[in-house]
Write a structure and sequence with these properties.
By secondary structure, the protein is mainly α. The protein has 10 helices and 2 strands; from the N terminus they run E-H-H-H-H-H-E-H-H-H-H-H. The chain starts with about 25 loop residues before the first strand and ends in a 30-residue tail after the last helix.
Length: about 240
């Protein structure tokens, strides 16, 4: 019989147990999200999301903060000047890249355009060596189906449960709307702030499609009408929803 296993979930960077000489290594799985959309969601959650008293104390919460779009627009003339306020709209940029890069890549070393090829290569090496699968928030149901296929002892039934999670999910409904063009802000974020995180995201998307095919999981046809369900990572992927 197999020994009892432990499932560990926490906010923290990937840890390379192999490099530490550990005899047993964890089975990693993860979810990623469109970098600009994730950054906007993180900002909105900090200021208007349903957070605990401790979380509000640690990161602060200011319901009078500018919208994410307005905050990013104000960064355009001064970028890459840093702002070490945890509630700043760019403070948590590139945290997905930093996570997969590992313990030696503190997110403050890869934000504000400081990320580069070395961090990207390290992150992809870690993903392809130690992660059973990496899925997508934008493709949540298929991600859970893939997790179930590669680790059935833990994820059996997860796709069905995931539908309930989506139905019960909450949002930062009080977040104000941006006043600057979404296209302008998204271009700035993609080319100046998050270029290497987007390259990581695209590489993981290609691997995700290959893993689905290898596991015999059928890809649904994209919806004909936009906004009817979350976007899916097909060749025809039209991009994330507007920034808030």
């Amino acid at each position: 019989a197999l020994r009892r296993r432990t499932a560990r979930t926490a906010h923290g960077p990937y840890l390379d147990f192999r490099a530490l000489g550990a005899a047993a290594r964890p089975a990693y799985v993860a979810l990623v999200r469109d970098p600009a959309t994730r950054l906007a969601s993180h900002y909105n959650y900090i200021h208007w999301g349903p957070r605990s008293a401790w979380a509000k104390f640690w990161k602060g919460q200011d319901a009078r903060a500018p919208s994410f779009g307005s905050c990013v627009a104000a960064k355009l003339p001064t970028f890459p000047t840093r702002d070490d306020n945890r509630g700043d709209c760019l403070y948590w940029a590139n945290v997905q890249l930093a996570y997969f890069c590992g313990l030696g890549c503190d997110h403050r070393d890869v934000t504000y355009g400081d990320a580069g090829p070395a961090q990207l290569v390290a992150a992809l090496d870690n993903v392809r060596r130690d992660f059973l699968a990496v899925g997508f928030v934008e493709d949540f149901h298929d991600s859970l189906a893939l997790f179930e296929a590669v680790l059935p002892t833990f994820f059996r039934g997860a796709p069905k449960l995931g539908l309930n999670l989506i139905a019960r999910s909450t949002s930062s409904a009080g977040a104000p709307q941006p006043r600057t063009s979404n296209d302008t802000l998204r271009a700035f974020l993609a080319t100046d702030v998050l270029p290497f995180e987007y390259r990581l995201y695209d590489a993981i998307a290609a691997d995700f499609a290959a893993h689905l095919a290898a596991c015999g999981l059928r890809r649904p046809v994209p919806p004909s009408e936009p906004g009817t369900r979350p976007p899916r990572l097909h060749r025809t992927y039209s991009g994330p929803p507007p920034l808030n």
